């Protein structure tokens, strides 16, 4: 079986060496780019299974890189940032990042998050079921969403969240439950991640339908079917 390929884009060579060491111990193949432009070139050349992308880099930063990646691919992206600033985190998620992790971080935590994303991807390949509602069809087998007869491009995490909610119509989930079920790990209590993804889904699924993603104030969210 071929190794999963990870593309790491970070200008800090010391961090790159450490991450490379740990990921190779886990049987993952890693490619390293030390700036945004090189990262995009390597992304096109190697078609990685997952991208680890630093936000703060000279020249082309990680925000610009993920913008360009999302124009052509829904490959999972985990953002790496030394900032604890909420704006950077929310912006990264709104641009289509699947996750972010703040430096300094424990290598075991990073590996757990990478494996969770890879596991979801592999499980989705074997998934045969699709969910159908009026004006909406979601398939994990092909990672596609058909909305009002047209294919709707969604980043993997948005699609997985939509699929999970739609799989449990009218059931309310707390933000913490959604983090555990969809992200498959504890997200250190940062429930804003769920809020950002819900906001993006609502923007893309506007209009009147017999279903909607509804906020249950003080609790969480549900996929309401009338």
From TrEMBL:
<dbReference type="GO" id="GO:0006355">
    <property type="term" value="P:regulation of DNA-templated transcription"/>
</dbReference>
<dbReference type="Pfam" id="PF00486">
    <property type="entry name" value="Trans_reg_C"/>
</dbReference>
<dbReference type="GO" id="GO:0005829">
    <property type="term" value="C:cytosol"/>
</dbReference>
<keyword id="KW-0238">DNA-binding</keyword>
<feature type="domain" description="Response regulatory">
    <location>
        <begin position="5"/>
        <end position="118"/>
    </location>
</feature>
<protein>
    <recommendedName>
        <fullName>Stage 0 sporulation protein A homolog</fullName>
    </recommendedName>
</protein>
<dbReference type="GO" id="GO:0000976">
    <property type="term" value="F:transcription cis-regulatory region binding"/>
</dbReference>
<dbReference type="InterPro" id="IPR001789">
    <property type="entry name" value="Sig_transdc_resp-reg_receiver"/>
</dbReference>
<dbReference type="InterPro" id="IPR011006">
    <property type="entry name" value="CheY-like_superfamily"/>
</dbReference>
<dbReference type="InterPro" id="IPR039420">
    <property type="entry name" value="WalR-like"/>
</dbReference>
<feature type="DNA-binding region" description="OmpR/PhoB-type">
    <location>
        <begin position="128"/>
        <end position="225"/>
    </location>
</feature>
<dbReference type="InterPro" id="IPR001867">
    <property type="entry name" value="OmpR/PhoB-type_DNA-bd"/>
</dbReference>
<dbReference type="InterPro" id="IPR016032">
    <property type="entry name" value="Sig_transdc_resp-reg_C-effctor"/>
</dbReference>
<dbReference type="Pfam" id="PF00072">
    <property type="entry name" value="Response_reg"/>
</dbReference>
<comment type="function">
    <text>May play the central regulatory role in sporulation. It may be an element of the effector pathway responsible for the activation of sporulation genes in response to nutritional stress. Spo0A may act in concert with spo0H (a sigma factor) to control the expression of some genes that are critical to the sporulation process.</text>
</comment>
<dbReference type="GO" id="GO:0000156">
    <property type="term" value="F:phosphorelay response regulator activity"/>
</dbReference>
<keyword id="KW-0804">Transcription</keyword>
<feature type="domain" description="OmpR/PhoB-type">
    <location>
        <begin position="128"/>
        <end position="225"/>
    </location>
</feature>
<dbReference type="InterPro" id="IPR036388">
    <property type="entry name" value="WH-like_DNA-bd_sf"/>
</dbReference>
<feature type="modified residue" description="4-aspartylphosphate">
    <location>
        <position position="54"/>
    </location>
</feature>
<keyword id="KW-0597">Phosphoprotein</keyword>
<dbReference type="GO" id="GO:0032993">
    <property type="term" value="C:protein-DNA complex"/>
</dbReference>
<keyword id="KW-0902">Two-component regulatory system</keyword>
<keyword id="KW-0805">Transcription regulation</keyword>
């Amino acid at each position: 079986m071929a190794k999963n390929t990870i593309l790491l884009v970070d200008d800090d060579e010391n961090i790159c060496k450490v991450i490379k060491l740990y990921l190779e111990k886990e049987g993952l193949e890693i490619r390293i780019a030390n700036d945004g432009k090189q990262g995009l070139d390597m992304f096109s050349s190697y078609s990685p299974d997952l991208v680890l992308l630093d936000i703060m880099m000279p020249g082309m930063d990680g925000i610009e890189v993920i913008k360009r990646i999302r124009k052509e691919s829904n490959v999972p992206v985990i953002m790496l940032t030394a900032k604890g600033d909420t704006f950077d985190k929310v912006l990264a998620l709104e641009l289509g990042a699947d996750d972010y992790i703040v430096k300094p971080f424990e290598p075991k935590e990073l590996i757990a998050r990478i494996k969770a994303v890879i596991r979801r991807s592999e499980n989705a390949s074997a998934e045969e079921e699709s969910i159908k509602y009026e004006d909406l069809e979601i398939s994990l087998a092909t990672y596609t969403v058909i909305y009002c007869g047209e294919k709707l491009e969604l980043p993997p995490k948005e699609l997985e969240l939509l699929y999970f909610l739609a799989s449990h119509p009218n059931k309310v989930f707390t933000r913490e439950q959604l983090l555990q079920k969809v992200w498959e790990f504890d997200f250190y209590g940062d429930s804003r991640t769920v809020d950002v993804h819900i906001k993006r889904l609502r923007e893309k699924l506007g209009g009147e339908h017999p279903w909607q993603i509804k906020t249950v104030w003080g609790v969480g969210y549900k996929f309401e079917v009338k």
